[in-house]
Design brief:
By secondary structure, the protein is an alpha/beta fold. It folds into 3 domains: 30 residues, no CATH class; 48 residues; 136 residues, Nucleotidyltransferase, domain 5 (2-Layer Sandwich), CATH 3.30.420.10. Helix content is 42%, strand content 14%. It is built from 9 helices and 5 strands; from the N terminus they run H-H-H-H-E-E-E-H-E-H-H-E-H-H. Strands 3-2-1-4-5 form a 5-stranded mixed sheet, sandwiched between helices. Strand 2 and strand 3 form a beta hairpin. The longest helix is centred in the last third of the chain and has 19 residues. One of its GO terms (molecular function) is nucleic acid binding. Pfam families: rve. InterPro entries: Integrase_cat-core (IPR001584), RNaseH-like_sf (IPR012337), RNaseH_sf (IPR036397), Transpos_IS3 (IPR048020), Transposase_IS3/IS150/IS904 (IPR050900). It comes from Pontibacter ummariensis.
């Protein structure tokens, strides 16, 4: 229902009542990121890939060196919005959320010798034109094959779960799925699905990059070798570029065990 409709406001309110929608939605316009923020976010992401241990204040020092004045509140919000967190080495992983019982997975402690033994999944931010999108991917640790991926304009749990479901339908069920402790991977829908499929749940400690390192390397390769060299103007162009990259990655650079 558009606010510019020829229908009277009173009639539109009546229709909102029938649909169960609050009438304030008629006047609400989603807030967009400012031009300055859209310029800052790609810089933060590029610097983060080169220096993943940098914290908020160090990232803001970098922006100031580039000529942008950003206070710590806005900088922290942008980094959180992009899902960027400094990787700090910890002795033990942080405990997962209260609804999740996870398996401690260590790249050095677990011998991975077959496909569908361990999958890793993550979400990353990608800038486009005057906005941004989120890329979700699932990688098989043994073959380094991308078993599933999706582009979306949000980071909702439904997107990540849909990618995992499709990957399982196409390639079979893994024994372990590893992720970080993002809300998409600790919610009851994600945890309930994995438990229902009898798939072991593995989660990184906060700020730890060593366990989920394979998909972290994938993001670095994708962005530094392709996205930054071919900036997309819109979501459709980005989709075509990411699709082309993953086809090359799966079928030419890797051995393609799943082929």
């Amino acid at each position: 229902m558009e606010p510019t409709s020829k229908l009277s406001i009173r009639y539109q309110f009546d229709q909102c009542g029938l649909l169960g929608i609050h009438r304030s939605g008629l006047y609400y316009a989603p807030a967009q990121e400012s031009e300055e923020n859209l310029a800052n976010m790609p810089l933060l992401e590029e610097h983060y890939l080169a220096r993943p241990t940098r914290g908020v204040l160090q990232m803001l020092d970098y922006l100031r060196d580039e000529g942008y004045r950003v206070n710590h509140k806005r900088g922290r919000r942008l980094l959180r919005h992009m899902g960027l967190e400094a990787h700090l080495l910890q002795k033990e992983p942080e405990p997962a959320g209260p609804s999740c019982v996870y398996t401690r997975l260590s790249a050095r402690g677990l011998e991975i010798g077959r496909c569908n033994q361990v999958w890793e999944t993550d979400i990353t931010y990608i800038a486009i034109g005057k906005g941004f999108m989120y890329l979700t991917a699932v990688i098989d640790v043994y073959s380094r094959f991308i078993v599933g991926w999706s582009l979306s304009n949000n980071r909702e749990a439904e997107v990540s779960l849909a990618v995992l479901r499709e990957a399982i339908a196409r390639h079979g069920k893994p024994e372990i799925v590893n992720s970080d402790q993002g809300s998409q991977f600790t919610c009851k829908e994600w945890v309930g699905y994995l438990k229902g499929e009898r798939i072991a749940i593995s989660m990184d400690g906060k700020g730890r990059a060593l366990v989920n390192i394979y998909i972290e390397r994938l993001w670095r390769t994708l962005k530094q070798d392709y996205v930054y060299m071919n900036p997309a103007k819109d979501g459709w162009e980005l989709y075509q570029e990411v699709k082309s990259f993953f086809e090359f990655y799966n079928h030419r650079e890797s051995e393609g065990v799943f082929r």
